[in-house]
Amino acid sequence: MYKMLDPAELTVFITGATSGFGAAAARRYVAEGAKIIATGRRTERLEALQAELGADKCHIITLDVQDRAALKAAIAAIPAPFANINVVLANAGLALGLQPAYEADEDDWDTMVATNINGLLYTVRALLPGMIERGGGHVVTIGSVAGDYAYPGSGVYGASKAFVKQFALNLRADLQGKNVRVTNIEPGLTETEFSLVRFKGDADRAGKPYVNTVAMNADDIAESIFWTTILPRHFNVNRLQMMATTQAFGPFNIYRED
Ligand SMILES: NC(=O)c1ccc[n+]([C@@H]2O[C@H](COP(=O)([O-])OP(=O)(O)OC[C@H]3O[C@@H](n4cnc5c(N)ncnc54)[C@H](OP(=O)(O)O)[C@@H]3O)[C@@H](O)[C@H]2O)c1
């Protein structure tokens, strides 16, 4: 029988636990006996999650990953029962808008860079030394198929996810001999609040990508995240890309004059 790690030995720090993948992962880990530190900006959602999962298994911190100082201070103040973090799920992120680059809102670009790139960097940088000191751990970053494949309007979002992929691979190179695994999870179409955020609350527009098709859901992604982190320690999944069965690759887009 193949021997997986005991999830009860895991303490998982999750960014973006108030919704989507992060919330589903929080539930998945706690259901298997792990402890989690759930973070995000929306305190009332964190409180509801903690009420659901129990304060002995779920510690919550209201946190904006863009705020490096707040992140460091919050990590330093984590109470002892949750302090031995051995999995970091750097998941907080967003897409804003779908305009071509020449029409895109530069504030949207700033927010995506500040969250998907800087916030992820701050999270990983703040938590890595502790994991190394404690003898090992696992960094899971959330990339996207948008980090590999261009599509119209993907702009800075896709580029930010390409950054995340390369940063995860570079981390692997730095962490040789430190017993810290790194996995970049790269999902395709998945129904969460992602689209609602992208279209700034326009529910009609946000629902369109999911009409008359079957997308992946947050539990699918949580399952993949969970699996990579309970594999035996000698085994590192570098990148894991997944799509809904209904999603595949388009033809090259050739512009033709009428
Ligand atoms: N859904 C998809 O199709 C898809 C596909 C590939 C990759 N992804 C990626 O997967 C990750 C999770 O997305 P999701 O689909 O689960 O979307 P979601 O339901 O909108 O969840 C996004 C999470 O990120 C958090 N977040 C956003 N900005 C933050 C900030 N500045 N500080 C802290 N937390 C912040 C949100 O929490 P608060 O608002 O409470 O702060 C929320 O919990 C993202 O990195 C996204 O780019 C999504």
Structure report:
The protein contains 8 helices and 9 strands. A 7-stranded parallel β-sheet has the order 3-2-1-4-5-6-9, with helices on both faces. The protein has a two-stranded parallel ribbon with strand order 7-8. Helix 5 links the parallel strand 5 and strand 6. Helix 1 packs across helix 8, helix 3 runs parallel beside helix 4 and helix 4 packs parallel to helix 5. It is globular. The model has no long low-confidence stretch (mean pLDDT 98). The site of NADP nicotinamide-adenine-dinucleotide phosphate (NAP) has 30 residues, from helix 1, helix 4 and helix 6. NADP nicotinamide-adenine-dinucleotide phosphate binds next to helix 1, helix 4 and helix 6.
Radius of gyration: 18 Å
Number of domains: 1
Question: How is the CATH topology named?
Answer: Rossmann fold
**Percent helix:** 25-40%
Report the sheet with the most strands, covering strand number, pairing sense and barrel closure: 7 strands, parallel
Which CATH architecture is right? Answer: 3-Layer(aba) Sandwich
- Calculate the mean pLDDT score and round it: 98
Spans of at least 5 consecutive residues whose pLDDT stays below 50 are none
Keywords: Oxidoreductase
Protein name: SDR family NAD(P)-dependent oxidoreductase
Family: Belongs to the short-chain dehydrogenases/reductases (SDR) family.
Organism: Devosia rhodophyticola
